[in-house]
Amino acid sequence: MSTDMKTTPGTTATDAVVVATDLTKIYGEGDSEVRALDGVSVSFPKGQLAAVMGPSGSGKSTLMHILAGLDQPTSGSVLVDGTELAGLNDQKLTLLRRDKIGFVFQFFNLLPMLTAKENIELPMKIAGSTPDPEWQATLVEATGLGTRMSHKPAELSGGQQQRVAVARALLSKPAVIFGDEPTGNLDSKTSSEVLALLRRAVDEFGQTVIMVTHDASAAAIADRTLFLRDGKIVRDAGHLSAGEILDTIKTLE
Amino acid sequence: MIGLVLRGLSTRKLRSALTAVAILLGVTMISGTLVLTDQIDRAFVQIFEQGNSKIDVVVKQKPPFKDDQTEVYLNADLVTAVRAADGVQIAEPYIQVQGYVIVDGKPMDQTGGAPSFVFSSVSEALNPYTPIEGRLPTASGEIAIATQIAEKSKAKVGQSVTLATQDGIKPVKIVGIVQYGDGTTSLGGSTTVLAPLIDVQNWWSLQGKASYIYAKAKDGVSADELKANVRAALPQKDVIVQTGKENADEQASVLNNLIGKIIRYALLAFAGVAVLVGAFIIYNTFSITVAQRTREFAMLRTIGASRRQILGTVVGEAFIIGLVASVIGIGLGLVFAWGLNKLFGAIGFGLPATGLILSWQTVAVSLAVGVGITVLASIFPALRATKIAPIAALREGATLPVGRFQKLTPVIAIVIAVLGAAGMVFGLTSDADTTSRLLTLAGGAILIFMAVAMLARFIVRPVVGVLAVPITKVAGGVGKLASENAARNPARTAVTAAALMIGIGLVVFVTIFVGGLKESFTGAIDTSLKSDVTVTARGFGGSLPAGVLGAVKAVPGVQTASPVGGTVVQVNGQSLALIGVDPTTITDVYKFDWNTGSDTVVQNLGAGKALVEDNIATSLKVKPGGTIKVQSINGATATFTVAGTYTDPSILNGIVVEQSALKPLLQSNATGLNTVFVKEVPGSNADTVQAAIEKALAGYPTAQVQSNAQQKEQVASGVNTILVIFYALLALSVMISLFGIVNTLVLSIFERTREIGMLRSVGTTRRQLRAMIRWEAVITSIIGGVLGVLLGIMFGWAVCKGLESEGLSFVFPTVQIVIFLVLSIVAGIVAAILPARRAAKLDVLEALQYE
Ligand SMILES: Nc1ncnc2c1ncn2[C@@H]1O[C@H](COP(=O)(O)OP(=O)(O)O)[C@@H](O)[C@H]1O
Ligand SMILES: [Mg+2]
Question: Which residues surround the ion ligand 2 when the cut-off is CB under 5 Å?
Answer without folding.
Answer: A 61
